[in-house]
């Protein structure tokens, strides 16, 4: 049995949280949602997520600050920004913080699933490379043990 992929949504707009949660749960994802940056960070402290969907404009702290703190907690968690404020400056700052993608509001499900699929493909490639390195290292260790 495979584990469900866990997604965290951090967005202050209830209709967006509801719609994203519904769409993603219908596709088999386990979803948590928070309406503030600090609440999202608390969830990140308590749980591991495969991906974070993060709004830029939040009522307490902005998404860039959330991304910075999230990176300090888990440097590998992919962050996809979702925002109506997709200025070049915001996008560049998000990318510098390691954002995996940036989706502009209104969110179209095709864009959302495209970002998730790209993340999954990237993750699969990284896993395959890691396995190959392990195989080579084990092979080298075995070869040295034979000599």
What do these coordinates show?
It is a single chain. With 147 residues, this protein is an alpha/beta fold. The chain has one domain (6-146): Response regulator (Rossmann fold, 3-Layer(aba) Sandwich), CATH 3.40.50. 55% of the residues lie in helices and 16% in strands. The chain is built from five helices and five strands; from the N terminus they run βαβαβαβαβα. The protein has helices at 14-26, 37-46, 63-73, 88-96, 109-146, and strands at 6-10, 30-34, 51-55, 79-83, 101-104. The chain has a five-stranded parallel sheet with strand order 2-1-3-4-5, with helices on both faces. Helix 2 runs parallel beside helix 3 (63-73). The longest helix is centred in the last third of the chain and has 38 residues, at 109-146. The radius of gyration is 18 Å and the shape is elongated. The mean pLDDT is 84.
């Amino acid at each position: 049995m495979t584990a469900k992929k866990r997604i965290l949504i951090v967005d202050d707009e209830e209709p967006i949280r509801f719609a994203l949660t519904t769409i993603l749960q219908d596709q088999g994802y386990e979803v948590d949602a928070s309406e503030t940056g600090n609440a999202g960070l608390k969830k990140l402290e308590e749980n591991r997520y495969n991906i974070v969907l993060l709004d830029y404009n939040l009522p307490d702290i902005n998404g860039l600050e959330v991304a910075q703190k999230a990176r300090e907690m888990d440097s590998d968690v992919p962050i996809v920004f979702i925002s109506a404020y997709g200025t070049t400056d915001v996008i560049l700052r998000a990318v510098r913080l390691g954002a995996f993608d940036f989706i502009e509001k209104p969110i179209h499900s095709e864009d959302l699933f495209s970002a998730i699929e790209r993340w999954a493909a990237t993750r699969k490639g990284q896993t395959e490379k890691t396995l190959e390195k392990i195989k080579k290292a084990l092979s080298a260790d075995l070869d040295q043990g034979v000599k």
